[in-house]
């Protein structure tokens, strides 16, 4: 059996283990081929970089859809922070390790000797490229279902650690824990046409101003004011430090 046949069998076994399928197994091969190998081969060898671009977009949309369903009624800023927490490079690399895709990645000898197979950035890129390949080969629903399967535990973990609370909820919890009077939110300004209104909100703690926020809605302005108040109270958000 030649090396090409062995490679395709290896990839078919990987797809079966991951619970996905490919009509064109060559696109999975490309998703798991690093650019470093092209320098060592005379024939043209396509790498994962363009598939990673597609996969990154597909993953972002799948994550947004999942968060919208599982954690409803949040502001765009909150959703962006939550999405960043579950699709960052460190998280994707951990998922890739759990899936054990590293042995199937083709690397150049130099990259292999440099420990590329264990690099978080490379693993995260390959996972995104794999998703991009699945999207192009099987369509959006197959790609979304696979992405959701990967991301659901991450969302559950965030919920369990209360890291996706909105800032108003965090401020309320902080006040209750410290036996401080509940925060009071006051709209101090509201102007502009109805379709482009701007609100300014001030939050009061202990009877004095603790933060201000401006937004296109009252809720957004309240969230920003609560965020400022929490920072002034010395609260550090680990999910913003990643």
General description of the model:
By secondary structure, the protein is mainly α. Helix content is 57%, strand content 10%. The protein is built from ten helices and three strands. A three-stranded antiparallel sheet has the order 1-2-3, with helices on one face. α9 (167-177) crosses α10. It is elongated, with a radius of gyration of 23 Å.
Concise synopsis of the structure shown:
By secondary structure, this protein is mainly α. The protein has helices at residues 3-18, 25-31, 49-70, 76-86, 89-99, 109-113, 120-138, 140-160, 167-177, 218-232; strands at 184-191, 198-205, 208-215. A hairpin with a 2-residue loop joins strand 2 (198-205) and strand 3.
Write the topology of this structure:
Elements: H1 3-18, H2 25-31, H3 49-70, H4 76-86, H5 89-99, H6 109-113, H7 120-138, H8 140-160, H9 167-177, E1 184-191, E2 198-205, E3 208-215, H10 218-232
Antiparallel strand pairs: 1-2, 2-3
Helix pairs in contact: 1-2, 2-7, 3-4, 3-7, 3-8, 5-7, 7-8, 9-10
The second-level CATH architecture of the largest domain is Orthogonal Bundle
Radius of gyration: 23 Å
Physical arrangement of strands within the biggest beta sheet: 1-2-3
In the CATH scheme, the class of the largest domain would be Mainly Alpha
Q: How much strand?
A: 5-15%
Pick out the low-confidence regions: none
Count of alpha and pi helical runs: 10
- Total separate domains: 2
Oligomer: single chain
Shape: elongated
Mean pLDDT: 89
CATH superfamily of the largest domain: Ribonuclease III domain
- Structural class assignment: mainly alpha
Distance N terminus to C terminus? Answer: 47 Å
Fraction in helix: 55-70%
Q: H/E order of the elements?
A: HHHHHHHHHEEEH
């Amino acid at each position: 059996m030649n090396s090409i046949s062995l490679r395709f069998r290896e990839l078919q076994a990987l797809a079966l283990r991951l619970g996905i399928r490919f009509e064109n197994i060559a696109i999975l091969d490309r998703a798991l081929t690093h650019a470093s190998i092209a320098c060592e081969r005379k024939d043209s060898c396509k790498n994962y970089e363009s598939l990673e671009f597609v996969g990154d977009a597909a993953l972002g949309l799948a994550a947004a859809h999942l968060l919208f369903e599982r954690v409803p009624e949040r502001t765009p800023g909150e959703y962006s922070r939550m999405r960043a927490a579950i699709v960052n490079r460190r998280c994707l690399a951990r998922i890739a390790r759990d899936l054990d895709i590293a042995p199937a990645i083709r690397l150049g000898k130099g990259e292999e000797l440099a420990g590329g197979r264990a690099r978080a950035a490379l693993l995260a890129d390959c996972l995104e490229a794999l998703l991009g390949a699945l999207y192009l080969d099987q369509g959006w629903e197959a790609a979304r279902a696979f992405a959701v399967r990967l991301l659901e535990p991450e969302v559950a973990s965030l919920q369990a650690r209360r890291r996706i609370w909105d800032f108003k909820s965090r401020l309320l919890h902080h006040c209750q824990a410290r036996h401080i009077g509940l925060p009071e939110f006051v709209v101090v300004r509201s102007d502009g046409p109805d379709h482009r209104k701007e609100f300014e909100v001030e939050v009061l703690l202990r009877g004095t101003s603790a933060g201000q926020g401006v937004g296109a809605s009252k809720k957004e302005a309240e969230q920003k004011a609560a965020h400022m108040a929490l920072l002034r109270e010395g609260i550090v958000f680990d999910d913003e430090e990643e």
